[in-house]
Protein: CinA-like protein
Amino acid sequence: MEAGERPRAAVIVTGSELLTGSITDRNGPWLARELGELGFEVAHVLLVGDRPDDLDAALRFAVNSGCVLVVTSGGLGPTADDLTAQVVASFAGVELVLDEDLRKHIAGILRGWAVRTGFGGPALDEANRKQAMVPRGATALPPVGTAPGLVVPRPGGPLVVVMPGPPRELRGMWPAALEAPPFRELLAGVPAATSLSLRFFGLPESEIASTLREFDSEMDLSGVEVTTCLRRSELEVDLRPKPGAAVFAAELHGALAARHAKHLVSDDGTTTDELLARALLERGWTVATGESCTGGMLASRLVDRPGSSAYVAGGVVAYSNTAKTQLLGVPAEMIEEHGAVSPEVARALADGARERFGADVGVGITGVAGPDGGTEAKPVGYVCFCVTTGGGLVLARDPRLPGGRSDVRERSTDLGMHLLLRAAAPRRAE
Amino acid sequence: MEAGERPRAAVIVTGSELLTGSITDRNGPWLARELGELGFEVAHVLLVGDRPDDLDAALRFAVNSGCVLVVTSGGLGPTADDLTAQVVASFAGVELVLDEDLRKHIAGILRGWAVRTGFGGPALDEANRKQAMVPRGATALPPVGTAPGLVVPRPGGPLVVVMPGPPRELRGMWPAALEAPPFRELLAGVPAATSLSLRFFGLPESEIASTLREFDSEMDLSGVEVTTCLRRSELEVDLRPKPGAAVFAAELHGALAARHAKHLVSDDGTTTDELLARALLERGWTVATGESCTGGMLASRLVDRPGSSAYVAGGVVAYSNTAKTQLLGVPAEMIEEHGAVSPEVARALADGARERFGADVGVGITGVAGPDGGTEAKPVGYVCFCVTTGGGLVLARDPRLPGGRSDVRERSTDLGMHLLLRAAAPRRAE
Structure:
């Protein structure tokens, strides 16, 4: 099989605060996904501080990596350390010029802001002028906040697309960037991308690796870039065909799904959360939670999806034994006999939640999240789960989950979601 | 004031899955923070795919950026695309050799895992051998999972520290990396860092910028790198002195805290969550939650801290009106008259939670998280909060919060935490 290569793109995210570890970048992953879907191969995502030399070096690194496109985010604000426009202009070999229309446009936005907040004066005028300076020959993109974006062609490439740092502004401006003539022209030459994905639960990464090695001995896999990503208990496998390899990628996708059908959650990118929501809606079921160690994390995850009020009745965070007894009717003797962390109590939490909220399905979770409270019989990570329905279905598990307190709580939430999914949408094989 | 420069370090995070946007890197920010605290200036954080050429280019980019240290994460797994050890060996100009002790050590770990999961066989043996290959002259760091880390000196620099990708393994292995002789030697020459921080609530970033401009006209601020970071409703200000500027940084830190005392949450890096936990423990109070739109997110955040069972009684996720009425005693007529999203219902949720759980302080949250359900009077983002205590204290708010569904829910959780903190630890000025 022959497969071409995709044109490469780089993402540069600026902001010294990203290098102190006090904040996690959200723009890099978002832009990387967008660029991948447009058909680019993302060469790298580079986070640099607000230092002109470092930004310049980052732009040159993208050139050396063979990128035809660089998207930057950040450094467009009104303060002195916001230097992106200037560095990009110099990188493109042009000077900054005042865009009078843009200045007036920003002035209008700032006036409204000044009236609302009571701030204003010469500092604002200076910010206005600074933000309206545009590299000669660049396309300015109208501000979503107050900072305009820029599309800056450089002789010999790459095309530089300059976006603001606040994620809301960046995402809001992205459609306009795609419509800018130089970007549109570049995109016309990019082969379409069709990424395929598989989601497994409870399958070790080494099993996929071993299957791929086996397939590799029978056929040429080089036309498809396969990446696996373990997200706690779920394994995501992403297949990205190079140009010309779409049909083969679809075959490989089907073969992997068939080989590991027992652990397959979805083969079209659908998340567990979405599958569960659809299954509950289809059945017309409502769900109620009785949580101890997860402390509301499962309820919060269920509520995360818009429209969840149609199937989430509610939940109780029964962290203390009194709460378990008084709010969810877990018998005090049961707690005394079996312990608060026990399969019996998990089931009583599920039944109690279901009954108190008048729900169709209930889930109970109680476990030792740590770091303290573990015993030899019930060590840190030991968590009891139960899902029960009004129809008499009972699904119970009591694994020992690895990791620290937050790992155990997050994995417990995952497992709770998967047990609910199994109750609401039983797989054919079962 | 004179201030030197800090030695530079770079972080390289490998993993093609980071460039498809399907996962957000957690290792880069964590390592950046650690390196900053050790006294390095972090030049950049670079995310690259599992392609040997790109990783090699990333290592060379760090050399060109003047870095004396590079920390990599990822690419140590058993699959064919895990190539970090090999690329780093070639970068350092040495060959890979099998470390027999390490192989046995990993084999022992894998045996236990194979017994527990039922997976095993030749795939496992191959993984074992691959993971025990070490660049000649490097220090191997014992695995936390199954992958060992590496400390690899390169003639002429930089020192390369190779860490595994899973965040839990990376963090668990970090102390051993710091103890490896070549890293210890390097650290001996790094001037100590004393980063100072300030945490504000409800203070716009532009106010700090304006204060800094004012200070800048009176004194030379160049010895201190000040970064501000807006995390939803909280503003974190980080002051990082260059060598020799520690005293001045402390003065600036004090001046900023004094100027914005009204919005100050902490001046020593203590988080809101920690302050609240301390205040509740000091008073011997327990807290109960009655949540609608946040759906358990506040309860989960309270439970997140180890030892929280001492002060978290529990909570109810009262997502439906029936749940509000039946589980927390919110009068049905009140919901009919004022609506489920109203200051009245927020108070009834707080009182109901406090009473049902026998807690000392209760918090009620009800709001329109969106995207649907907004009206002109109660638009998306309108959220009602109330905190009440047995002693008769009532704190109520009903702001309109910006952003989409998850923004509104997260900001609501923040505001709930701050209202609880205000109830448990009233500030002197109030």
In short: Chain B touches chain A through 101 residues (CB under 8 Å). The first helix of chain B runs from residue 27 to 38. The first strand of chain B starts at residue 8 and ends at 14. The two ends of chain B are 39 Å apart (CA to CA).
